[in-house]
């Protein structure tokens, strides 16, 4: 009996089926917990799913490469999902037009704050230069941030992880920050969360309020584009200053 | 659903081709998003299929970040070594970005004209 189970395990461990299935299972389990908690920000589904998967992979001695051969099919959908953000954007176009000035000013201020404060704090606490440069693009969505990290001398796969955890922090903490600031406009709340916490913040915003979600999507797209343009220009200065 | 997914992929592909041919630093999917936005403005909105598929996709946007997040496994060593700096950097800069963006937008959208009720 046991050799048979071993054989099955060897087959499954090498096939993409397992990685894909456990990703979907972990996420659905995490989502049930999130819903049961009444969409509590601390029960963030990405955080719970990642924790469950890391534990499972570590316990079974499965490498990330093996896991990713299956999970890449989910990862790939980030591209079409980014394109799909044009639709909520279109639906809020009127409101965006009316708020053009705050949107532009908020974009530049928020984007620069995210980049410079991340690098400054890491440097102050003695992080290595590659770590600092991996942190610089952490507020923009994964595929963009990884591309930027590669260009400026960071470590793309480390950036991916930092991006995800930034998103989780933003999605978890935004409500408390905004409430403390007495910031109530759902458009501004959404835009700020999109700047600071990209797609994960945007996902959270959509679950709370449709308008916040659309503004978060706008902010995420604009910040991705702006950071991709700005960071390669200021990175040489960050590396020496 | 298939037609809508095909449309999204075509826009992503077009974005990718534009980004590579002009060596733009902006990633393909973001250009694809801008192209689709312009198309929607010209056409006067998305069709039923595209609307429905996008809503489904975006409703579970957070799922799509799970595989990359699990990549934390690869960097345990660096994270153990540098965790105080990493954690402080993420906490401070995420909070700062939320506050600065929110504050600046609030100031710009409601200039000093007294309190609203």
Protein model, in words:
The complex is a heterodimer of chains A (241) and B (117). Chain A has 13 helices and no strands. Chain A has 241 residues and is mostly helical. Chain A has two domains: 76 residues, no CATH class; 165 residues, no CATH class. Chain B folds into two domains: 59 residues; 47 residues. Chain B contains five helices and no strands. Chain B is extended and about 50 Å long. The chains are: A mainly alpha (241), B mainly alpha (117). Chains A and B meet through helix 2, helix 3, helix 4, helix 5 and helix 6 of A and helix 1, helix 2, helix 3, helix 4 and helix 5 of B.
User: What is the helical fraction of chain B, as a range of percent?
Assistant: over 70%
Q: Write down the secondary-structure element order of chain B.
A: HHHHH
Number of helices of chain A: 13
- The total of beta strands of chain B comes to 0
Number of helices of chain B: 5
Summed up, what is this model?
Chain A has about 240 residues and is an all-alpha fold. Chain A has 13 helices and no strands. Chain B is mainly alpha-helical and about 120 residues long.
Key traits:
heterodimer, A: 241 residues, mainly alpha, 13 helices, B: 117 residues, 2 domains, 5 helices, disordered C terminus
Topology:
The complex is a heterodimer of chains A (about 240) and B (about 120).
Chain A: H1 2-14, H2 16-36, H3 45-60, H4 64-76, H5 78-84, H6 86-91, H7 93-98, H8 100-124, H9 129-135, H10 142-152, H11 156-181, H12 186-208, H13 210-240
Helix pairs in contact in A: 2-3, 2-4, 8-9, 8-12, 8-13, 10-11, 10-13, 11-12, 12-13
Chain B: H1 2-21, H2 28-43, H3 48-59, H4 66-70, H5 76-109
Helix pairs in contact in B: 1-2, 1-3
